[in-house]
Amino acid sequence: MGCILSCQKAANPIRTYGLKKATVLASLLSTLLLLVALGMILYEAIERLADPQPVAGLLVIIVAAIGVVINSATAWLFLKGQKNDLNIKAVYMHMVADAAVSVGVVLAGVLILYAGWLWIDPVLSIIIVAVVFMGTWGLLKDSVNLSIDAVPETIQTAEVEHYLLSLPGIISLHDLHIWPLSTTQTALSVHLVTTQEQIDNTLLETIQHTLHKSFGIDHTTIQIEHQSDTFHCRLEKEI
Q1: Which of 8, 64, 198, 216 has the largest CB neighbor count within 10 A?
Q2: pTM of structure
Q3: Helices (H), 116-222
């Protein structure tokens, strides 16, 4: 909660975007901590596999079952928000990992109690670590990409370019940049080259509205240039 509140602080002359980017750093840190936790679980599982120890099956089942309920309920609370916020997704993955481990412990407890298979506990732990790792790896990749200002995966640059070049009077564009301000907000800046003599403010408002509605881009900076003043254009509309 402290991170969320601090990230909402207003911009200042030094941090002109405020602390919005801290949400990206938080998601990256959460992902790294989750990977460390998975590594610890894997290490302990390998040790237990090499040297199985007696386990109080019934007690393990009861405690783990409580963990399944609590972690599953918590993960459910974050289920909707994690689709649109990488930071919430990191917390969601933590809860899913905890719930999965608890499920594995319950299954292991049952098999140990009735079959005496001491090896099943570490084996299930290794399987769960592998499954959770696959989901966490994607989260890590997304967090790293956002931390280095890569275009969010929900936005296709080519589609944004196509839309901008389809606007009336726009013949080319250059210096198009799309980057994350936070885990939930995206910014765009671009130079549009036009044949029109006067800047159409209505067109600018339309562009900003469409970029927000169709692509989820919240903060837009557009520079209009007349074709006679432009010496290099990277993308031109096909004639």
Answers
A1: 64
A2: 0.68
A3: 120-147, 157-165, 201-215
